[in-house]
Specification:
This protein is of the alpha+beta class. The chain has helices spanning 18-25, 31-39, 73-76, 104-107, 120-127, 129-133, 159-170, 242-250, 298-308, and strands at residues 3-10, 43-45, 48-49, 61-68, 80-83, 87-92, 150-156, 175-183, 190-194, 197-199, 206-208, 216-225, 228-235, 274-282, 289-293. The strands form three sheets. Strands 5, 6, 7, 8, 9, 12, 13, 14 and 15 form a nine-stranded mixed sheet that branches.
Length: 309
């Protein structure tokens, strides 16, 4: 049976729908997932079940109980795309966090074993204990993918590989390619979005804003559907939520994006339709150009098929 993760909120903003209220406070879960939890009775408003479109008046106590996926080290063996003495390359599934939300694991990695919610760092601490013994920072994690983003992910297995990969990321020597399914169908086959990304006002969300840091992304339309598109994205800078923010800025948000995707549009995506498809790097030891790809997961491909109908 899955572990449960519990949240308690006090509504201080009247007039919001229940699902939108939760989406703003628990951004790691898609709007669709939140709506399913509400429908299943996992969300209580003043101890009563409500519908997703319930309008909050302000002052309500909202209790939430979320199931946590039971990934473990045994199942994670199937995620491995490549491994050698320097790097580990995995196909991260959507829904799993990179590391615990607390910071105690950074100074004492063993505390990661006491965390209730599985994470990439925790699973590979168990599966590849040699990484921790090698003294690699952050248990080998040299870059991140959001919880709801799937795809290719690099981990360093020793300090030399870690330093090399961090330098390649810092100097933009690695090239990452993503696949996304967007709402709307761009007329142009190629787009280049240049817009600063940062926080808007007091919000913690990253959006295109004049007050952000410079960011640039190239997009290529691979396939078109009546009201969606399969898009290839090449981030030329490395800002947080860059692809999501730039596609929304261009008017074609990623399907399933709790922040930018519109309500009540069909088909309904099971999660954020964003996948890290490919990464090109100079191998830390051989210095040869190396490409790793993560095949599209079934939920992504199935949703695209629905878009084509």
């Amino acid at each position: 049976m899955s572990e449960l993760r519990n949240f308690n909120f006090l509504c201080e903003t009247p007039g919001l729908r229940l699902d939108r209220f939760l989406a703003a406070r628990i951004p790691d879960y898609s709007r669709t997932a939140l709506q399913s939890f509400i429908k299943d009775g996992r969300v209580l408003v003043d101890s009563h079940e409500q519908k997703s479109n319930f309008k909050l008046r302000g002052g309500e106590k909202i209790e939430v109980s979320f199931p946590i996926n039971s990934w473990d080290a045994a199942s994670a063996k199937d995620w491995i795309l490549h491994e050698d003495q320097d790097i580990l390359v995995i196909n991260k599934p959507a829904g799993i966090i990179m590391h615990p939300l607390s910071n105690s694991w950074l100074s004492n990695p063993e505390t990661i074993l006491s965390e209730k919610e599985p994470s990439i760092a925790g699973i590979f601490y168990q599966l590849r204990p040699g990484i921790a013994k090698a003294g690699v920072e952050r248990l080998g994690i040299v870059h991140r993918l959001d919880r709801q983003t799937s795809g290719v992910l690099l981990l360093a297995k020793n300090q030399d590989a870690e330093k090399n990969l961090r330098r390649q990321f810092k100097e933009h020597l690695l090239h990452k390619t993503y696949r996304a399914i967007t709402r709307g169908n761009p007329r142009q086959k190629r787009l280049r979005v240049t817009a600063p990304i940062g926080h808007a006002g007091m919000s913690r969300n990253f959006v295109a804003t004049p007050f952000g840091k410079p960011a640039e992304t190239g997009f290529k339309i691979l396939k078109s559907a009546p009201s969606a598109a399969l898009v290839e994205a090449h981030p030329l800078t490395g800002r947080t939520h860059q692809i999501r923010a730039h596609l929304a800025f261009a008017g074609y948000p990623v399907a399933g994006d709790f922040l930018f995707d519109k309500e009540n549009l069909l088909p309904v995506p099971p999660r954020l339709m964003l996948h890290a498809f490919e990464i090109t790097l100079s191998h830390p030891r051989t210095k040869k150009e190396t490409i790793f790809r993560a095949p599209l997961p079934r939920d992504f491909s199935d949703f695209w098929k629905q878009c084509l109908k």
